[in-house]
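Example A, followed by Example B.
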Amino acid sequence: MKLTNPATGTTLLDVDTDTARTIRAKYARARKAQPGWAALPLAKRAAAIRKFRDLVADRHDELARTLSLEVGKPIRQSRNEMKGLLPRIDFFLAEAAKTLRDEKVFADATMEERIGHDPLGVIANISAWNYPYFVGCNVFVPALLAGNAVLYKPSEFATMSGMHIADLLHTAGVPDDVFSAVIGDGTVGAALLRLPIDGVFFTGSYATGAKIAASTGRRMIKTQLELGGKDPVYVADDVDVKAAAAAVADGAFYNTGQSCCAVERVYVHETIYEPFVKAFVDEVKRFKVGDPLDDATYIGAITRKPQLDVLKRQVADAKKKGARVLTGGAAIKGKGNFFAPTVLADANHSMAVMRDESFGPVIGIMAVPDDETAVELMNDTEYGLTAGVYTPDEKRARRILARMQSGTVYWNCCDRVSPRLPWSGHKHSGIGLTLSTYGIQTFTRPKAWHLRSA
């Protein structure tokens, strides 16, 4: 399998991929090794994860460069991912012991009732390319701490980062058979899912997630699906227009818009619509597009070349239906997969750009007359990952956000993830959760203990 730099079109590496035979062998070794890993004291499992964390910190620059080369992420943002990973791992390490310990819930003279937390067993982690360290570590770090073995399939577009992760974990002391990287494209992922695993944790598109759910549902195994979003933001009439525009633009275009929680729809109160749009466009025009390895670059390459056609179709559809293209609007000619940062004003819900996931540097902006209309439009979607409101009025924000059909809501911020809070979605944005203490327990199955004294 050839690994290609999306910014230049050049080949980075040619790697061997797994086959059905090698995947079965990795599964068999993981099944054999998992009980011994689970039997280790948690402190020993945690020591390996702590060492992994330290190795990530030590090799920060190398890992960030590899990430930028293979997915086209601007190097400063790759460094941010590496830095941001460390407190996320620290959270899991700090919370694992008290989250996983048995709980005594009742006791009297003759009976004690306890809740235990057994590991699932051998799980499949089919991960994403846009944040391979964040998304992957949300799964395999707590899964390993909880005593599971992990068959980890990185996205084929982040294979080199996936191989780095496996090497670092093994160097840190996680046995090779307890954490195995499975290398290849979607056919390799499909072969992995045919094995008698105990859980599937997938991050990717709704279409693929729906197929996985249909397959695993018949087998009654733990299935978590972190899928896409069409995340809205409402800008109320009482904001500092320039500050709000800058914040929302960053939320829409960071990581070249290739984030499941990127702002993808903007609704602006009609009384400030024109000044907001002007400030927003001014901000976007300052974003530097170019070489992902250049520290000054803010907009990098589109990782998957076919996504360029998706963005082109959305822009053409919006223009046909009355949107104004205020900047950008087309792919950038030359080497690599680049699309100009694009702002579409006067958008409406007949346009694909306001309904279908863009996953690129394209945003639609729509005027609304009041809060009620904003709420209706924000919820008018098949997705429900995040939603945000910008206003200095906390009560107003809480009223609006309480009605959002989203797993995460933001007041005066967006495109933000915290390890302390669960990450989940409504509707087509998925099922299950990662992060928070719930995101540690999700890699276990509860066991009810009824203990009667003789």
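Example B, a separate protein, is given below in the same form.
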Amino acid sequence: MKIGVVGAGMVGATAAYTMMLNGVGSEIVLVDLNRKMAEAQAHDIIHGVPYGHPMWVHSGGYEDLAGAAVVVVAAGVAQKPGETRLQLLDRNAAVFKAIVPRVLDVAPDVIFVIATNPVDIMTYVATRVSGLPPARVIGSGTILDTARFRTLLATHLRVAPQSIHGHVLGEHGDSEVLCWSSVEVATVPFEAFARSVGRPLTGEVKAQVDDGVRNAAYKIIDGKGSTYYGIGAGISHLVGTIISDQRRVLTVATLTEEVEGIENVALSLPRVVGRAGVLLDIAPPLSDEEHAALRHSAEVLKEASDPISC
């Protein structure tokens, strides 16, 4: 099965590399305005195929995306000095207006996976520009934030992150909502499990986890310039879930009719994902405080996306 990646920078290339290692798809096509870079990334990745999974990895143009089941969009422009966030959004919207129709010309049945930041708003833009049903335009959303949340909780308990069931909802950004009230370990509420193993969830631990999730990107960017390994793994997992129709529950972003009273906003909720895209939205149990925080997150994203010309 063919997978396209538009934008062969660190996020796009790392996602492609991780998909090769995980055996996601049978062909990966890297497309970038910088064709020389896309070609170099493809060569570098395919040299790892003998130690990963058999597949064809190559660069190409939009015409080479014909028949792709999923196209990951990781392309975008960087913020200029003195440029406002809205100006940056408008420029990235222009990039998407150029990319999305060209993909649809050759792959009309594609499912888009959006990785460009700010991912929630770019998911909104891609949905509007494409005219596709929201179920077929999926932002990576808070899959990375959820992974960070589970990893930090697992580190505290000294268990595997896969055994932690908890979600981060809303914006992939400062207003994201850590859903403490519903975290479980093997069906046991997190706080009860933590007490039973002698590692209680104190206010200090909770604050450290919140900071570790909410500010992870800032710390990583300060240390090495950008983040790409975690999100690359998350994109690989998401694409694999789609093409294999695994119907996993993932915290991904789609344009949603209504969330906490806010209409037509793209943000993350737990959703069942399969071959047709998003199959079902799940309304998790939330505390009153979490309901209010999710509404605030939706308001932040709504305010940012409404002025954008699509």
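On Example B: The first strand starts at residue 2 and ends at 6.
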